[in-house]
C-alpha cells in the first residue's frame, strides 16, 4: 500500500500534471503510456526516466520500450509492435466490425505466459486420477478458479482462451473414462459426454463456451 501511494505521487500525479494530454494506466510498478507520435513518445519517455531517477527509482532497461501499435490503419514499421500488460498481450489481430466486415485492429488477448501458468495449475489438479470424486464435486472444486480465469482473461479476444478450456475438457474426459470402465470405447465416451453437456450445460463453468470440444482439446 505504501509503495502504491508513493507511485501515485511519484508517477501518476506527476505525469497528469506535466503531460495532461497523455493518457496512461498503471498497476503497481507497471505502466502503459499512450502517445500520438514517436517524437512525443521519446520526449515523454525521457521525462519519465528523469523523474524516476529524481525519486530514487530507475526504469527497467529490458522491459521499458516504445511500441508502435500497428494495425490496419497504422501500417508503418518499428522494432517493437507488441507488448504485454497485466496478463494480456497486445498486438495486431483480426477483428470484425459492426457491419460484419473484417479488419485488423490492435487488441489484447491472454498472454502466452498467463496460458502457461493456467495450464500448469490445471495439470497439477490431475483430474483424471481423482476417480473418488463425483462429477458434481469436481465441478464445485474447479469452477470458482476456471470462472475467474474466464471473467478476467476472456474479457478480451475470448477465442485465444478457448484452446486452454478445451484442454480442461480433455482432462475431464480422461477422468470419465477412468472412473467408468464401460466408457473406455471412444464412441461410448463421446455419447456420454454429449449427453452430460446437453442435460447439464452449466455444470462446469467453461461449458458455457466449450461444451462439446473435448476431442479437439
Defining key terms:
5 strands; 3-stranded antiparallel β-sheet; single chain; 217 residues; two-stranded antiparallel sheet; alpha+beta
Structure description:
It is a single chain. By secondary structure, this protein is an alpha+beta fold. Helices cover 46% and strands 13% of the residues. It has helices at residues 2-18, 38-54, 112-125, 135-153, 162-179, 186-199; strands spanning 24-27, 30-33, 83-85, 88-96, 102-110. The strands form two sheets. Strands 3-4-5 form a three-stranded antiparallel sheet. It has a two-stranded antiparallel sheet with strand order 1-2. The radius of gyration is 23 Å and the shape is elongated.
The biggest beta sheet reads: 3 strands, antiparallel
Shape: elongated
State the end-to-end distance.
41 Å
Helix content: 40-55%
**What number is the mean pLDDT?**
93
Task: Give the percentage of residues in beta strands.
Answer: 5-15%
Give the radius of gyration: 23 Å
Classify the secondary structure makeup into a structural class.
alpha+beta
Oligomer: single chain
Weakly predicted, low-confidence segments: none
Total DSSP E strands: 5
Topology:
Blueprint lengths: L1 H17 L5 E4 L2 E4 L4 H17 L28 E3 L2 E9 L5 E9 L1 H14 L9 H19 L8 H18 L6 H14 L18
Antiparallel strand pairs: 1-2, 3-4, 4-5
Quick take:
This protein has 217 residues and is α+β, with helices and mostly antiparallel strands. It has helices at 2-18, 38-54, 112-125, 135-153, 162-179, 186-199, and strands at 24-27, 30-33, 83-85, 88-96, 102-110.
Amino acid at each position: 500500500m505504501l509503495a502504491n501511494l508513493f507511485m501515485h505521487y511519484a508517477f501518476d500525479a506527476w505525469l497528469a500534471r506535466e503531460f495532461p494530454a497523455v493518457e496512461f494506466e498503471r498497476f503497481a510498478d507497471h505502466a502503459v503510456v499512450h502517445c500520438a507520435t514517436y517524437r512525443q513518445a521519446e520526449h515523454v519517455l525521457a521525462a519519465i526516466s528523469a523523474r524516476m531517477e529524481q525519486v530514487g527509482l530507475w526504469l527497467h532497461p529490458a522491459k521499458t520500450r516504445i511500441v508502435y501499435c500497428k494495425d490496419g490503419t497504422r501500417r508503418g514499421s518499428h522494432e517493437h509492435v507488441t507488448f504485454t500488460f497485466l496478463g494480456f498481450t497486445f498486438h495486431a489481430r483480426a477483428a470484425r466490425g459492426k457491419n460484419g466486415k473484417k479488419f485488423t485492429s490492435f487488441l489484447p488477448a491472454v498472454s502466452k505466459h498467463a496460458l502457461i501458468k493456467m495450464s500448469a495449475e490445471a495439470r497439477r489438479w490431475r483430474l483424471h486420477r481423482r476417480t473418488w470424486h463425483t462429477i458434481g464435486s469436481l465441478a464445485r472444486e474447479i469452477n470458482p478458479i476456471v470462472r475467474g480465469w474466464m471473467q478476467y482473461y476472456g474479457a478480451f479476444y475470448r477465442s485465444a482462451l478457448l484452446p486452454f478450456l478445451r484442454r480442461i475438457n480433455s482432462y475431464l474426459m480422461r477422468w470419465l473414462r477412468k472412473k467408468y470402465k464401460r466408457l473406455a470405447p471412444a464412441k461410448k465416451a463421446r455419447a456420454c459426454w454429449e449427453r452430460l453437456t446437453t442435460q447439464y450445460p452449466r455444470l462446469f463453468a467453461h461449458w458455457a463456451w466449450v461444451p462439446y470440444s473435448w476431442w479437439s482439446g
